[in-house]
Amino acid sequence: MRAMVVRRFGEPEAMELQDREVPVPGVGQVCIRVHSTSVNFADIKARHGQYRGGGAPPFVPGLDAMGTVDALGPGVEGRQVGQRVVAFPSGGSYAEYVLADAQLVFGVPDEVSDEQAAACPVVGAAAYKLLVDVVRVQPGEAVLVHAAAGGVGTTALQLARILGAGLVIGAVGTPGKMAAALAAGADIAVDSSQDDWPDAVREATGGRGADVVLDSIAGRLTAESFRCLAPFGRLAAFGDASGEAGWVPTTDLHSSCRAVLGFSLGAARRQRPAELRSRPPRCWGTSPMACSALKSARSCRSSVQPTLIAW
User: Fold this and answer.
1) pLDDT for 178-210, tens place per residue?
2) Beta-bridge mates of residue 211
3) What are the chain's domains?
4) Which of 35, 41, 99, 242 has an alpha carbon within 20 to 30 A of 251's alpha carbon?
5) What is the spatial distance between Cα 301 and Cα 251, in angstroms, rounded to a whole number?
6) Which pTM does this prediction carry?
7) 97 φ, ψ (degrees, to nearest 5)
8) Cβ partners under 8 Å of residue 222, min gap 6
9) Nearest to residue 100, comparing CAs of 128, 133, 124, 65?
10) Nearest 5°: CA angle at 120, between 117 and 123?
């Protein structure tokens, strides 16, 4: 088979198409012939050697894959050869064939296209777990999403609406991205590069602040987010795209009953994969609402790319 390999840290030119052996599934594993894979920000960070827990060259990048089951390892049940699936492979996904633990392989409903399914695994699972399991968004709450023009951001905007959020606010780092956040479903968009952006959030929420903040940026934005986080609000920290750690004084927590909660989809996949299986995101399901939401999800445009190689 062919695979795209990062030979050294750097720009895309550091990747090289190589021939490799088709992997053979072991106990509890599924071999998948890859149709498409999404290109996520984490892939870019890994290629530059900036992704926490990322591999050292040479390695195959990619966190998720969409394709068909090619072979089943011993002990695998509930899957069949030829079935359309999405998966979180045990290795990189920029390859013709990948192996994945059966717990991390999900069937794709007939109503969902290959491209839509390919856009979903990382951004869909992250957005859903953050909103449902981490911050536990409640109907009517105000939700603020940072990096709202990105893959997880645009997905979270839409899922927040589906889950009943009363106000959805998209925060972006440049004025040119505000239109993308609004197009993805934000009620209002704010430019977080401006010093007064927390004031805009407070004004939009009648002075109360947002009940939920999804923060993948960290750095100064974490502290600034607390300036517009409502009492009893929850801030989910799930990345540090700024390259800097975010800081919050503990006095800002107990005095207002606010909380900071951490989440990593990578850690969840590695350490508690059964939780994705026991409570899979709606986009893995077959309910009419789930399929309709996924088919119309504009987030697919921001995160999915055709497979880098025409297999």
Assistant:
1) 999 999 999 999 999 999 999 999 999 999 999
2) none
3) 1-107 (3.90.180.10), 123-266 (3.40.50.720)
4) 242
5) 41
6) 0.85
7) -135, 145
8) 215, 235, 237, 246, 247, 248
9) 65
10) 170
Q: Name the nearest CA neighbour of 263 among 297, 197, 218, 211.
A: 218
End-to-end Cα spacing for the chain: 9
Question: What are the DSSP E strand ranges found in 76-162?
Answer: 84-87, 97-101, 105-107, 142-145
3-state secondary structure (DSSP) of residue 27? coil
Question: Can you tell me which residue has the tokens 């004084």?
Answer: 249
The set of residues, in sequence order, having a beta carbon less than 8 Å from that of 224 and lying 6+ positions away, is: 192, 197, 198
Please write down the HEC assignment for all residues of 137-191: CCCCCEEEECCCCCHHHHHHHHHHHHCCCCEEEEEECCHHHHHHHHHCCCCEEEE
What is the Cα 280 distance to its own chain's centre?
14
Alpha helices in the chain (DSSP H): 41-47, 114-119, 121-128, 151-162, 178-183, 197-204, 220-226, 251-254, 265-271, 273-278, 288-295, 299-303
The tens digit of pLDDT for each residue in 27-74 reads 999 999 999 998 888 888 889 888 876 778 999 999 999 999 999 999
Strand-pairing partners, residue 79, are none
**Model confidence at 309: pLDDT above 90:** no
Amino acid at 119: A
DSSP label at residue 26: -
What is the longest distance spanned by two Cα atoms in the chain? 60
Q: What single letter denotes the amino acid at residue 227?
A: R
